[in-house]
Design a protein that fits this description.
globular, 5 strands, Helicase, Ruva Protein, domain 3, about 5% strand, about 600 residues, 5-stranded mixed sheet, mainly alpha, 23 helices
């Protein structure tokens, strides 16, 4: 990390002065360094990067050689398709420790050919080649395994026995990796399927027996969202919750797969919706945090872009001075942990880009926030003794800037608000079930009654109107068809895989409309419930009861769906502010790492 930081600083300085080290006077016609000019540069830059002249000289020469070799290699590769590879040889096999070793080769040759050439030129008998931490397979081509022009290849010396053991180990690792990938893919598929089922439920079913999800604001009130966006948003939030669950278990590689899936679903939603809530901003932070944990911050542009998106969303959602947040929640203390993590990641990226000044500025903000958010253990213990949970205590103390009495009042009020919300939900559910019973007593099926109430937002008069209109339309259609079921239409449904009895019943129920009949059968898994059948079907109508052989299949599918739904629901936190409940232990550790790298000297003056 330090070497990357130093070279980044020097490259910035060279870019500002428009100095091209691969051109004269820094590089001669025979590609040798201009000693005097390189020395002068080292002496001029040393104070600015807070390093000794020899250290800067070595770094500058490394940058120069890289540029010269890249230029030569690019030209050769364009003209002949011969790539230039940098070989990282074993220490005792190098003739000069300061000189880098290169080898030219085509990329469409087997790795074994390159192994033989390296062994012959450098006197190495048993070796293996490593690219980006992966061992190259001898019997495959270089380009098939990701080797490109200018790739750095590590050369490791091994004994014949070690080579065999290593090959066995790598084969086991490959199998484990494949199993891990299959496991990740299965997890993604199950998560998607489970939340897909939930996203397609519209709340018209009995909420006690059939769980469904609805989108609520920061106070828990349901939001009206177009159906298409609602489904995408539920999938996005489902993948995010699963990813966060995996993050808590330190399974960052699997977590980031789910988080990126969430990102894809969020992008299907209207941008105005994403800026109205903080979910999308938190997701961007979580993705970059996972990449940091996996030490995969080499793609700085992507990480930087995600953090900029997070910061912009926070400002739009909370307000420039967090005034919107204050208006909604009455305080801003709990959300400060998000800004702490944001500034901390920005500090890390600034350091990796060689901008120590900006890294220090961001770290200063981080330490200021950390000092306010780091809680008094004695106050935490007092709240725990009063019977409050650790999460309640942590969130309340941060919301109340560490004031113990205010925190007690805050938790008490929050518990009352949650209980009031639950009471309203229970009352709403009771009213809804009573209304369904009333409509059922009027002769309508429970399914139709529930759907009508859902469409009418619980208004009984509107629901009655919807049901009456539907009955009149169905009666008119039935009168027109005179109860006759077209054999051709029945054949169409049979071709789609439905049973004859159910197909004929569905066509009668929908007045002979094939599309409506198909939808009706799909919604009921090919078997119509008794409440959808006429009270006194014509004597010519066959029985609509499903064959006994199909019952286990239907029941099995329903049970499988329920099990899948319950599985994904386990990953959803029962606390609405779980994402704000950070212990800050990982953050404290990263603060120490960045401080240690920045403590080498004063910030550069450019």
């Amino acid at each position: 990390m330090e070497e990357q930081n130093t070279e980044a600083k020097l490259k910035n300085l060279l870019k500002q002065e428009k100095i091209q080290l691969w051109n004269p006077p820094y590089t001669s016609d025979n590609n040798q360094p201009g000693q005097q000019q390189m020395q002068e540069l080292a002496e001029r830059y040393a104070p600015q990067v807070s390093l000794s002249v020899p250290e800067v000289g070595v770094a500058l020469e490394s940058i120069r050689v890289q540029a010269v070799n890249r230029g030569k290699g690019n030209k050769t590769f364009r003209e002949t398709n011969v790539a230039s590879l940098e070989l990282l040889l074993p220490r005792d096999a190098r003739k000069d420790l300061k000189t880098k070793n290169y080898m030219e080769t085509r990329l469409d040759v087997l790795v074994q050919e390159l192994v033989d050439r390296i062994g012959e030129e450098h006197g190495l008998r048993y070796i293996r080649l490593i690219l980006s931490g992966k061992t190259l397979c001898p019997d495959k081509r270089l380009d098939e395994q990701g080797v490109k022009n200018h790739s750095k290849i590590m050369v490791l010396r091994v004994t014949d026995n070690e080579l065999k053991q290593q090959m066995h180990k790598e084969e086991e690792e490959r199998k484990n990796k494949e199993e891990k990938k299959k496991s990740q893919d299965k997890s993604l598929q199950r998560t998607q399927k489970g939340f897909q089922i939930l996203s397609e439920r519209d709340g018209s079913e009995d909420p006690i027996t059939t769980p469904f999800l609805e989108i609520a604001d920061q106070r828990g009130n349901p939001l009206k969202i177009p159906d298409k966006e609602r489904k995408a948003l539920i999938l996005a939030m489902g993948f995010h919750e699963k990813g966060r669950s995996l993050m808590k278990r330190k399974q960052y590689d699997n977590a980031v797969c789910h988080l990126l899936k969430a990102d894809g679903q969020f992008r299907k939603c209207d941008s105005a919706l994403l800026t109205a809530v903080d979910n999308y901003a938190v997701l961007q932070l979580d993705i970059v945090w996972c990449h940091r944990a996996l030490e995969a911050l080499s793609c700085l542009d992507d990480a930087k872009s995600r953090l900029q998106t997070a910061e912009r969303c926070f400002l739009q959602c909370y307000g420039e001075q967090q005034e919107r947040l204050m208006m909604i929640k009455g305080n801003t203390g709990r959300e400060q942990v998000l800004f702490l993590r944001l500034y901390l990641l920005q500090s890390l990226l600034s350091y990796l880009e060689g901008n120590d000044t900006q890294a220090r500025d961001k770290l200063s903000k981080v330490e200021s926030l950390y000092s306010r958010l780091c809680l008094d253990s004695e106050k935490m213990n007092q709240l725990l003794l009063l019977g409050f949970t650790e999460r309640e205590a942590r969130l309340a103390l941060r919301a109340c800037q560490g004031d113990l009495q205010d925190a007690i009042v805050h938790i008490t009020n929050h518990r009352k608000e949650k209980e009031d919300l639950k009471h309203r939900e229970r009352q709403k559910r009771r009213t809804r079930m009573d209304n369904i019973s009333t409509l059922t007593a009027m002769g309508y099926s429970r399914r139709d009654a529930a759907r009508a109430l859902h469409r009418a937002d619980g208004d009984m008069n509107k629901a009655c109107g919807i049901l009456l209109d539907a009955s009149m339309a169905a009666r008119a259609t039935n009168n027109n068809t005179e109860g006759v079921v077209s054999p051709e239409k029945v054949e169409q449904l049979l071709y789609l895989g439905f049973e004859r009895d159910a197909s004929e019943a569905a066509l009668r129920q929908t007045g002979g409309d094939v599309q409506s009949a198909t939808q009706l059968l799909l919604e009921n898994r090919g078997v119509l419930p008794s409440e959808l059948l006429p009270v006194s079907p014509p004597s010519t109508s066959p029985s609509t009861s499903s064959p006994s052989s199909e019952e286990p299949t239907t029941s099995s599918t329903s049970t499988e769906d329920d099990d899948l739904v319950n599985e994904v629901l386990e990953d959803i936190s029962r606390h609405e502010e779980d994402y704000l409940d950070l212990t800050l232990e990982e953050e404290q550790e990263l603060i120490g790492v960045i401080k240690s790298y920045l403590s080498r000297g004063p910030a550069p003056t450019v």
